[in-house]
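lol ok so funny story. i was supposed to be doing the assay writeup but got distracted and ended up predicting the structure for this chain instead. priorities right. anyway since i did it might as well share w the group, maybe its usefull for someone
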Amino acid sequence: MPMIQCHYIFQLQSVIWKQRKPLSKEMLLLNNANKNDATPLLLVARYGKTEVFCYLTEIAADINIPDTRKNTALHNAAFSDNLEIISILLDKGMYVDLTNAENSMPLHLSALTGNLEAMKALV
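and the output, tada:
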Protein backbone atom coordinates (compact mmCIF):
# COMPACT_ATOMS: atom_id res chain seq x y z
CA MET A 1 0.00 0.00 0.00
CA PRO A 2 1.53 3.35 -0.97
CA MET A 3 2.54 5.27 2.14
CA ILE A 4 0.78 8.54 1.21
CA GLN A 5 -2.55 6.85 0.52
CA CYS A 6 -2.23 4.71 3.64
CA HIS A 7 -1.45 7.76 5.75
CA TYR A 8 -4.45 9.61 4.29
CA ILE A 9 -6.82 6.75 5.14
CA PHE A 10 -5.58 6.44 8.71
CA GLN A 11 -5.68 10.21 9.16
CA LEU A 12 -9.29 10.25 7.92
CA GLN A 13 -10.17 7.39 10.27
CA SER A 14 -8.62 9.28 13.16
CA VAL A 15 -10.60 12.45 12.40
CA ILE A 16 -13.84 10.46 12.27
CA TRP A 17 -13.20 8.81 15.62
CA LYS A 18 -12.24 12.08 17.30
CA GLN A 19 -15.27 13.95 15.99
CA ARG A 20 -17.89 11.21 16.54
CA LYS A 21 -20.30 13.42 14.63
CA PRO A 22 -20.93 14.11 10.95
CA LEU A 23 -18.30 16.32 9.36
CA SER A 24 -19.14 18.86 6.70
CA LYS A 25 -18.54 17.98 3.06
CA GLU A 26 -16.22 20.96 2.84
CA MET A 27 -14.09 19.65 5.69
CA LEU A 28 -13.66 16.18 4.20
CA LEU A 29 -13.69 17.23 0.56
CA LEU A 30 -15.58 14.01 -0.04
CA ASN A 31 -15.49 13.86 -3.78
CA ASN A 32 -12.13 15.51 -4.43
CA ALA A 33 -9.54 13.23 -5.95
CA ASN A 34 -5.80 12.83 -5.52
CA LYS A 35 -3.31 12.90 -8.44
CA ASN A 36 -4.57 9.46 -9.58
CA ASP A 37 -8.19 10.64 -9.50
CA ALA A 38 -8.89 8.45 -6.47
CA THR A 39 -11.43 9.90 -4.06
CA PRO A 40 -11.36 9.05 -0.35
CA LEU A 41 -14.19 6.57 -1.00
CA LEU A 42 -12.21 4.79 -3.74
CA LEU A 43 -9.21 4.53 -1.43
CA VAL A 44 -11.08 3.07 1.52
CA ALA A 45 -12.85 0.62 -0.80
CA ARG A 46 -9.47 -0.47 -2.17
CA TYR A 47 -7.90 -0.94 1.25
CA GLY A 48 -10.91 -2.49 2.97
CA LYS A 49 -11.66 0.16 5.58
CA THR A 50 -15.32 -0.81 5.88
CA GLU A 51 -16.19 1.40 8.83
CA VAL A 52 -14.77 4.51 7.17
CA PHE A 53 -16.47 3.50 3.90
CA CYS A 54 -19.85 3.31 5.64
CA TYR A 55 -19.33 6.70 7.22
CA LEU A 56 -18.40 8.33 3.92
CA THR A 57 -21.44 6.90 2.15
CA GLU A 58 -23.69 8.05 5.01
CA ILE A 59 -22.53 11.63 4.59
CA ALA A 60 -23.07 11.58 0.83
CA ALA A 61 -19.80 10.60 -0.82
CA ASP A 62 -20.53 9.83 -4.47
CA ILE A 63 -20.19 6.07 -5.08
CA ASN A 64 -20.15 6.51 -8.87
CA ILE A 65 -16.96 8.54 -9.32
CA PRO A 66 -14.26 6.47 -11.09
CA ASP A 67 -10.49 6.96 -11.03
CA THR A 68 -8.29 7.61 -14.09
CA ARG A 69 -8.44 3.91 -15.00
CA LYS A 70 -12.24 3.99 -14.76
CA ASN A 71 -12.23 1.81 -11.65
CA THR A 72 -15.19 2.44 -9.37
CA ALA A 73 -15.47 1.69 -5.67
CA LEU A 74 -17.03 -1.62 -6.70
CA HIS A 75 -14.00 -2.51 -8.83
CA ASN A 76 -11.73 -1.68 -5.88
CA ALA A 77 -13.79 -3.67 -3.38
CA ALA A 78 -13.95 -6.64 -5.76
CA PHE A 79 -10.19 -6.62 -6.30
CA SER A 80 -9.50 -6.34 -2.57
CA ASP A 81 -11.97 -9.15 -1.77
CA ASN A 82 -14.09 -6.98 0.51
CA LEU A 83 -17.48 -8.69 0.43
CA GLU A 84 -18.97 -6.28 2.97
CA ILE A 85 -18.21 -3.21 0.85
CA ILE A 86 -19.40 -5.04 -2.27
CA SER A 87 -22.72 -5.74 -0.54
CA ILE A 88 -23.10 -2.13 0.59
CA LEU A 89 -22.48 -0.85 -2.93
CA LEU A 90 -24.92 -3.30 -4.46
CA ASP A 91 -27.56 -2.30 -1.88
CA LYS A 92 -27.00 1.32 -2.89
CA GLY A 93 -27.72 0.41 -6.52
CA MET A 94 -24.22 0.36 -7.97
CA TYR A 95 -24.13 -1.18 -11.42
CA VAL A 96 -22.20 -4.45 -11.58
CA ASP A 97 -21.52 -4.32 -15.31
CA LEU A 98 -19.41 -1.14 -15.51
CA THR A 99 -16.08 -1.75 -17.21
CA ASN A 100 -12.77 -0.10 -16.39
CA ALA A 101 -10.05 1.02 -18.85
CA GLU A 102 -8.94 -2.61 -19.25
CA ASN A 103 -12.54 -3.56 -20.12
CA SER A 104 -12.88 -5.50 -16.85
CA MET A 105 -16.01 -5.60 -14.73
CA PRO A 106 -15.85 -6.06 -10.94
CA LEU A 107 -16.71 -9.74 -11.54
CA HIS A 108 -13.51 -10.16 -13.57
CA LEU A 109 -11.47 -8.67 -10.72
CA SER A 110 -13.06 -11.02 -8.20
CA ALA A 111 -12.28 -13.93 -10.51
CA LEU A 112 -8.65 -12.78 -10.66
CA THR A 113 -8.36 -13.01 -6.90
CA GLY A 114 -10.37 -16.24 -6.70
CA ASN A 115 -12.98 -14.94 -4.26
CA LEU A 116 -15.99 -17.19 -4.90
CA GLU A 117 -18.30 -15.37 -2.46
CA ALA A 118 -17.58 -12.01 -4.09
CA MET A 119 -18.13 -13.56 -7.51
CA LYS A 120 -21.51 -14.94 -6.40
CA ALA A 121 -22.53 -11.50 -5.13
CA LEU A 122 -21.60 -9.89 -8.45
CA VAL A 123 -23.55 -12.20 -10.79
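The chain has eight helices and no strands. Confidence is low (pLDDT under 50) at residues 1-6.
back to the writeup now i swear
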